[in-house]
Amino acid sequence: MAEKYDFEDLRALFINCTLKKSPETSSTQILANISMNIMKNQGVKVDLIRAVDHDIAFGVQPDMRQHGWESDEWPEIFENKVKPADILVLCGPIWLGDNSSIMKKVIERLYANSAVLNNEGQYAYYGRVGGCIITGNEDGIKHCAMNVLYSLQHLGYVIPPQADAGWIGEAGPGPSYGDKLDNGSRAGIDNDFTNRNTTFMAWNLMHMAKMLKSNGGIPAHGNQLEKWQSGERFGFEKPHR
Amino acid sequence: MAEKYDFEDLRALFINCTLKKSPETSSTQILANISMNIMKNQGVKVDLIRAVDHDIAFGVQPDMRQHGWESDEWPEIFENKVKPADILVLCGPIWLGDNSSIMKKVIERLYANSAVLNNEGQYAYYGRVGGCIITGNEDGIKHCAMNVLYSLQHLGYVIPPQADAGWIGEAGPGPSYGDKLDNGSRAGIDNDFTNRNTTFMAWNLMHMAKMLKSNGGIPAHGNQLEKWQSGERFGFEKPHR
Amino acid sequence: MAEKYDFEDLRALFINCTLKKSPETSSTQILANISMNIMKNQGVKVDLIRAVDHDIAFGVQPDMRQHGWESDEWPEIFENKVKPADILVLCGPIWLGDNSSIMKKVIERLYANSAVLNNEGQYAYYGRVGGCIITGNEDGIKHCAMNVLYSLQHLGYVIPPQADAGWIGEAGPGPSYGDKLDNGSRAGIDNDFTNRNTTFMAWNLMHMAKMLKSNGGIPAHGNQLEKWQSGERFGFEKPHR
Amino acid sequence: MAEKYDFEDLRALFINCTLKKSPETSSTQILANISMNIMKNQGVKVDLIRAVDHDIAFGVQPDMRQHGWESDEWPEIFENKVKPADILVLCGPIWLGDNSSIMKKVIERLYANSAVLNNEGQYAYYGRVGGCIITGNEDGIKHCAMNVLYSLQHLGYVIPPQADAGWIGEAGPGPSYGDKLDNGSRAGIDNDFTNRNTTFMAWNLMHMAKMLKSNGGIPAHGNQLEKWQSGERFGFEKPHR
Fold it and tell me: Are strands D87-95 and D129-138 parallel, antiparallel or unpaired?
């Protein structure tokens, strides 16, 4: 029974870091839709951004318009989409075995906001959960996911079990996820491992987000920047030898 | 007030993946002790293993004695130390910018046990939390931590915010953490960033482990291998286009 | 005696992948200048591009103006700077332990040109050498260099010994390379390891580029895409068992 | 015509870093054999070591018997196999998306010998070339190769173009390279991309090794540790601003 879970107060944000501008088809989006739909059907309010469609400046400051850039849509995205989201899922393609430049830009801008603290004096990203979806013709889901999930936990997100999902084909050039194949089938969409991970990820993100919300976030002790800076040590003791 | 947190029912396991056998001094251990002591002072039962002191076989099976190895201490370590632990912290040095071979061996053996399921049909590592401590003369905390934390979440551990801590010196050869320097001080031990992360990590691991324990682990829906294998789909729908 | 080396027919291109637009100071540039100057003093013609100053489109096609982008300076950069260069050095900062988004964009665009072949039917990047320079406040030279050098060798560049150089400070926030410190010195500029690597890299790049040029590039046998595609196997035999 | 290439004075060493002891079948070996055979047929003397069959100690010293280990076969392997080899190919499996523990142990021991200098005062690994072969059920060739090739160039090896080859299957558990499939075929052995890379790698390693040998290694100027340590600067100048 899924009915016993009440996820209606949760909000999720999926950021698609494809290099392709709308309305080009993004393979990554096709896979991300599976997780998005599972969440929507559970009552989660789900937002989606395709980052390349937005005029997001390069840099590591919250608002790059104050640092020589004429325009920068990030501050608005951060305020209206990132901050309200209990769940953040970064989605992107693999190029030469690594995350896309757009993925790196989004992570740089999330990092730019990392000085913000919540009312408890914790990093403002605390109390949220993060995951990722990665697709490519071949090779690199884990390499890309490693970097994305590491970045999210570094910022303050909780990473639930098996918070990454993805699809790649056999070594070498080949179809992208969802591409029609000669035999009439579509690449990847029957891959049991991919389907299972995409599903498990969606549920684990919802479960952990809900648990954190119900428990008032991560308890505020031992992890407050301001208190540390003002001298509180939370039991820390320097090594004697 | 830390008094309001009751962590006495928690168990933690620190596995030190140094290449140095006892009784040689391990720099990594000096840093790990800080987190271990914080946990002990909160009532957590803390175990420590220096993996290189044990006769752990290479391989990806639960018991390598059934696969051509004469001896293998891993099954006992897994049963008596890993399974009872709510908190697992993998600790290790950096060599040539990457995790030690002992760290990789420990991760391979944790992976070897990943087919085990709990009573709910989830992976048996579910409901636990993981972190890591990395030290080196120079360069590589994040690279090593990325891999360790990724591996842990893949197995089923929850990764709390800022679950990695470490120390490295400036680029180039230099002292290890805790080494006595010419000026009488000791390398790294006054590094505010390292001390803060080591403390925050300890607390975030305890908070999340406690929260998971109090809530009965990750709710068992949408993440059960056996149910998936028997056809349950938890709302998963194949992409139409 | 350096006099015996005649590097006057060599061309080098340094691409600085800082996130900062001109005329902001780039720490990475300060370090890159050392290698550039060594090369210039040996008669190498050295070009420099700060990628963020150019309107380079996102994507993995040679000219993104044919794929929905209004403008794209890459095709001109590729034709006038990348193709003539015997030596390519990708330079960039570290953010959250990884390469910058601009670095990834430049690598994506280099990759976009990888279908081009030379007169021998080899990939057009063959016969050239590549290196990298990475700077950050802390942690990540090797992680970033690993990815950059891998990408370059994958495209066809030869990687000479010790083809990466960089500077980072001790763990935690801190000054960037070249920043003035309270004691009047400047961060990193007296780091012997950094200075040596930056020097060795410059020389190894020149030596290998010259050797390749004098020997007519990589001999064209066993590595020609077109011949492989037309059935030539160069001694390859399928495994029997 | 391959006849014009005289590779008879070249020696190659392949180190297989599988976790499986002989006589268990190693998938990685099946793929490595292709490159080994191409080299042998060109007159290269090719050695092979399966590292897990040897009693190689953990550590970062040349001979661990002087550091508390009862036995250590590495010093003999280094002297008789690594030092004579113009070409070194590290081969290994992927576990949880990363290199095997045996691969890391071999790299640690190669690193342990990195203080050795040649007659010119360069690092003793100079003048040699390196490559790698990686196989797995799924995902990780580039991630593993990135680390292996980086380590080799850091030690002093030259990395020729496209010096990595490998095979992985589609995302998810599946057969290993060479495994017999239900339809009678064998996993991976008809993969054109894998076969081509394995062939190109073999040839590029031979070409570069031969070129280096014919040219007397990397010219000894600008890259000699002892000269740098005694004050020679090879044109290096500290940044003025």
Answer: parallel
pTM of the predicted model over 0.95 = yes
CB A16 within 8 Å of CB A51 = yes
Q: What is the CATH number of domain D11-229?
A: 3.40.50.360
Per-residue pLDDT tens digits for A139-156: 999 999 999 999 999 999
- pLDDT score recorded for residue B1: 44
Could you tell me which chain D residue has the CA closest to the CA of A197? D172
Segment 141-170 of chain A within 8 Å of chain C by CB:
147, 150-151, 154
- What the block records as the tokens of B117 is 């399921």
Residues in chain B with CB shorter than 8 Å from the CB of D59 are 19-20
CB atoms within 10 A of CB B237: 13
Cβ contact, residue pair C38, D207, below 8 Å: no
Distance between CA B74 and CA C227 in Å, rounded? 51
Q: Which residues of B touch A146 (CB under 8 A)?
A: 146-147, 150
Residue type at position B203: W
Closest alpha carbon within chain B to C189: B171
Q: List the pLDDT tens digit at each of the 241 positions of chain D.
A: 445 799 999 999 999 999 999 999 999 999 999 999 999 999 999 999 999 999 999 999 999 999 999 999 999 999 999 999 999 999 999 999 999 999 999 999 999 999 999 999 999 999 999 999 999 999 999 999 999 999 999 999 999 999 999 999 999 999 999 999 999 999 999 999 999 999 999 999 999 999 999 999 999 999 999 999 999 999 999 998 6
* Alpha carbons D81 and D62: distance in angstroms, whole number: 14
- ipTM exceeding 0.85, yes/no: yes
| C21 close contact with A: CB closer than 8 A | yes
| C-alpha distances in Å from residue B28, one per residue of A88, B16, B25, B147, D106 | 33, 7, 9, 17, 22
Cα–Cα distances (Å) from A68 to A58, A59, A64, C19, C24, in that order, read: 11, 10, 7, 12, 9
Whether the per-residue pLDDT at C137 is higher than 70: the answer is yes
Q: Where are the domains of chain C?
A: 11-229
Q: Which of C58, C99, C139 to mutate to test the interface with A (most CBs of A within 10 A)?
A: C58
Q: Residue B14: left if φ>0, alpha if ψ -120 to 50, beta else—which one? A: beta
Distance of CA B68 to the CA centre of its chain: 28
Q: Which helix (H) or strand (E) holds C93?
A: strand C87-95
DSSP codes of every residue in chain B: --TT---TT-EEEEEE--SPPTTS--HHHHHHHHHHHHHHHTT-EEEEEEGGGS-PPPSSSS-GGGGT-S---HHHHIIIIITT-SEEEEEEEEETTEE-HHHHHHHHHHHHTTT-B-TTSSBTTTT-EEEEEEEEEES-HHHHHHHHHHHHHHHT-BB-TT-EEEEEESSSS-PPTTPBPTTS-BTTTT-HHHHHHHHHHHHHHHHHHHHHHHTTSS-SSS--HHHHHTT--TT------
What's the maximum distance between 2 C-alpha atoms anywhere in chain A? Answer: 68
Report the DSSP pairing between strands C87-95 and C98-99.
antiparallel
d(CA D34, CA A141): 27
